[in-house]
Amino acid sequence: MKPELGGNCERSAYFIAQILGHEPPPDGMRPAEFFSDNEVGTPIPLEDAKTGDIIGFRRPDRADYWGLHVGVIWARKNSPMHVVHNARHIRHLTLQTLAETMQHPHHSTIAGLRRLRPNPRNFNPDRNSAQWNAGKH
Questions:
Q1: Which pLDDT score is estimated for 73?
Q2: What is the pLDDT of residue 3?
Q3: What is the pLDDT of residue 125?
Q4: Burial class for 105, CB neighbours closer than 10 Å (0-12, 13-18, 19+)
Q5: CA-based end-to-end distance of the chain
Q6: Phi and psi at residue 69, in whole multiples of 5°?
Q7: What is the rounded distance in angstroms from the CA atom of residue 130 to the CA atom of residue 51?
Q8: pLDDT tens-digit profile of 18-65?
Q9: Closest among 48, 30, 52, 26 to 116, alpha carbons compared
Q10: Contact in structure between 105 and 23 (CB atoms under 8 Å)
Q11: Neighbour-count burial of 72, counting CB atoms closer than 10 A to its CB (0-12 exposed, 13-18 middle, 19+ buried)
C-alpha cells in the first residue's frame, strides 16, 4: 500500500490488524473517532502492547486526537517494539522500531494505544498474537 496511490495510515493499520485476527473498526472510521470510541477498541498501556494493537501518534503541540497517525504494534520476544505503518514521508508501508517511528516530528508523541476485539470469523489459531509475539511464525 502506498499513500500516493490512495492508501492511508488507518486503512493500512486496520487491514493489518484484521489479517492478524482482530475485528476492524467500521469502514470510514477515522483515527480521531477510533481513539475516542471505547466500544470499538479497549485502551491499554504501552507496557501491555501486543502484536496487532493499534497505536496512535500525534504532534507534541496537539492535545486531542485530531490528525493522528496510526500504525500496528509488532512485538516479538527479546526484540524492541516495532510499528508497521503507512507514512507519507516514507512513501510506503514500513516496519520501524517504536523509537524510529517517533523520530518524525508528527509522530513524536504517543496519543494512545487500543486493542481490538478478536474476530472469530477470520481468526487463525496457528497465527495468534501469542505465537507472533514469541516469534513462532
A1: 97
A2: 44
A3: 47
A4: exposed
A5: 23
A6: -110, 130
A7: 8
A8: 999 999 898 888 999 999 988 889 999 999 999 999 999 999 998 888
A9: 52
A10: no
A11: buried
At residue 59, the pLDDT reads 92
Locate cell 496511490: which residue?
Answer: 5
- Model confidence band, residue 122 (pLDDT cutoffs 50, 70, 90): low
Q: Which amino acid, residue 47?
A: E
**What gap in Å lies between CA 16 and CA 73, rounded to an integer?**
10
Q: Which amino acid is at 25?
A: P
- Helix H segments across the chain? 9-19, 31-36, 98-101, 129-134
| Half-sphere exposure of residue 20: CA atoms within 13 angstroms, side-chain side | 26
Cell of 24: 476492524
Confidence of residue 137 (pLDDT cuts 50, 70, 90): very low
Q: How far apart are CA 85 and CA 108, in angstroms?
A: 14
Q: How far is CA 24 from CA 1, 110, 116, 133, in A?
A: 17, 21, 7, 20
